[in-house]
Structure formats: C-alpha cells, structure tokens
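Predict fold of ATP-dependent Clp protease ATP-binding subunit ClpX; 114 aa.
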Amino acid sequence: MPDNVMRCSFCGKVADEVARLIAGPGVFICNECVGLCEQLLSGQPMPTFPPLDGKSDDELLAQMVQLDSSRGQVEAAVQERVLRLRSRSVTWARIGAAVGISRQSAWERFSGEE
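Predicted 3D structure, encoded as tokens:
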C-alpha cells in the first residue's frame, strides 16, 4: 500500500530528510540528487554506490520500501493522465498501445472497474 509521503523518486528520501524536494510531473527529485546530476553533466567523477551484497537485510528492506513508495507516486501520475485522456475520448486501444499493452489490459489496469 503506497503512502502519501512525498519522497525523492531517485534516492527515496522523504521531504524532511533533504533541504529541497522539487516536484515534476508525477515524480520528485531532491537537492542531493540534483547535485549528483550536476556533477554528472559537468563531467566530474561520480561517487560509487556500495554494492547490494555489502548491505544488511535491514538496509535492503528499507530501500525496497522507499522504491516501492516511489512507484506509487508514478502510478498515481499515470492514472491522472489516463483519466485526462479518457475525458478527451482517447480510446483504450490507443492508451494501451502507448504503454505496450492491449486495449483490454489497459481497461483492466486503468479503468478502476472490476
């Protein structure tokens, strides 16, 4: 069950763990991740991230929860766009084709009907 806490879609930190959280269309990015992006774009060496094998079970579980919460934010943004497209009479076939699924699968996933 996704929470409604705003968190960085890249690192998973919640808003009160960072100085700034910038909202985009269905995603958020924190000032720390923006800093990493600036380093990457300027050609500076990037810090390495520890391998998953070096993390404890608790660390992996915590990161999994953060990533899963970000997925909820993205799904909500996708659903908003589907509703907008349907209000413009865009067909389920066209919506499905855009995300690489059938018309029926799009209806099942996004219509909210069982």
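Residues 1-47 form one domain.
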